[in-house]
Design goal:
The protein is α/β, with parallel strands linked by helices and 458 residues long. The chain has 2 domains: 206 residues, Rossmann fold (3-Layer(aba) Sandwich), CATH 3.40.50.720; 248 residues, NAD(P)-binding Rossmann-like Domain (Rossmann fold). The protein has a 7-stranded mixed β-sheet with strand order 11-10-9-12-13-14-15, with helices on both faces. Helix 5 runs parallel beside helix 6 and helix 9 runs parallel beside helix 12. The protein is elongated. The N and C termini lie far apart (75 Å). The structure holds nicotinamide-adenine-dinucleotide and uridine-5'-diphosphate-xylopyranose (UDX).
Amino acid sequence: MFKKTILCIGAGYVGGPTMAVIAKHCPEYKVVVVDINPKRIAQWQSENLPIYEPGLEEVVFTSRGRNLFFSTDVDAHIASSDIIFVSVNTPTKTFGQGAGRAADLQYWEKTARQILKNSSNGKIVVEKSTLPVRTAAAMERILNSNEKGIHFDVLSNPEFLAEGNAIQDLENPDRILIGARHTDSAQKALQQIVDIYAHWIPMEKIVTSNVWSSELSKLVANAFLAQRVSSINTISALCEKTNADIEEVSRAIGMDSRIGSKFLTAGVGFGGSCFKKDILNLAYIAECYGLTEVSKYWEQVVAINSYQQQRFVRIVVSSMFNTVADKKIALFGFAFKADTGDTRESPAIDIAKALMEERAILSIYDPKASDGISSDLQQFRGRFTVEEDPYKTARGAHAIIIATDWKQFKDYQYEKIFEEMEKPAFIFDGRNILDHKKLYEIGFNVHRIGRPPLSHLG
Ligand code: NAD
Ligand code: UDX
């Protein structure tokens, strides 16, 4: 017999790993993860999990079938649960008011109605998805305007995990944030959520707040992180003009304890399903409250990100004698960052599209993200191939572009790769991860972000 049943609606990048870690640390709780996507659930039930995340298999395989279960039967599991985490997607709206900026809350609202329909007793509903500030108020109104006489408490418990590092972030988070209203009922509910995390997280790291602060903090955390990336990327452009070196600048400023060293790596811009969506949402919310200057300030973070990607493509084309038409270019990396197979909003997508618009022929290799490439680039079918071997990817190419910071890209035999490429051979290291001096000595013309190029071409 389990002490309580926790349900998570949404078995994605957040729902799956988060619930697996809760199940691992709370064996007396039954943890069920449901999704409307039967393929995803079948994968969670199999040996081939739907997402790649270091350490995830071990955590899932330890608890699955013991106190961790995956199912498509959303209705039945709502009925039998005590606490419901909602971790469905909240993408940017593509239609109507706020299109391209506001969060699309249709999946969330449908879930709230489904919870209401299938509940015969009150439950704790926890916002795990990232949501606009004050969403909980709307959700409570939907859930509590029922004729069954049952009461729901809606709490906010945003997730701060970063993909590729999810298990570590869940095992040892910087903080757990739980927001609740100041009613007796909500405070009791809050205690139940604190009790779950207290199984493995020290109390001083469990932060409680009001619901609105919690909802807003999630958007603000992502906005601040993305802002650092955009800030350092603007400086990389300035470094290229002045012969300053972005790595030296990052190091020098990062040693100031008030600034800190993280999120100061210049590159081809940030990707991922969260940063752009959440900043645009933050800007939209500010604008809705009449705070135009606030809105414009944050929108600039996204504008600089696009600028950095376009700037990178311009450098590629201009360095290759102003034309890449019919030239083979090898793209190393397609995921939005290392250690994930996720390609959502990956900078590689826009870089690949821009180069194919210039009529380049792309050969693409990614250790984990091959599956997404063809659909992300479907309108360019015939202009690119997806490879399984990096050496084959680069064979006969005029240039290699590093679009993702996969560690293994550093270990390839670049002498061998160079021999098999067209000459002059170029490397554009969009992540500044390779040994540039060595590549230059091999014979490559090396272009990097925020540092002068190493060129044999004068
Ligand atoms: P995802 O797209 O990987 O997963 C969401 C899942 O919800 C999908 O599998 C979808 O089928 C399912 N779903 C949608 N409607 C449903 C319904 N009515 N019933 C059952 N299942 C339903 O998304 P994700 O990356 O896991 O993100 C989920 C939320 O968490 C988003 O709000 C996101 O902003 C936030 N978040 C994501 C990350 C991240 O790194 N991916 C980190 C922190 C927060
Ligand atoms: C982010 C937040 O970090 C996480 O807290 C939140 O829960 C979800 O959004 P994620 O998008 O998974 O996580 O990865 P993150 O490590 O933040 O990287 C985002 C993007 O920024 C990647 O494309 C990454 O390559 C890029 N980045 C990051 C840089 O270009 N430079 C940096 O210094 C750091």
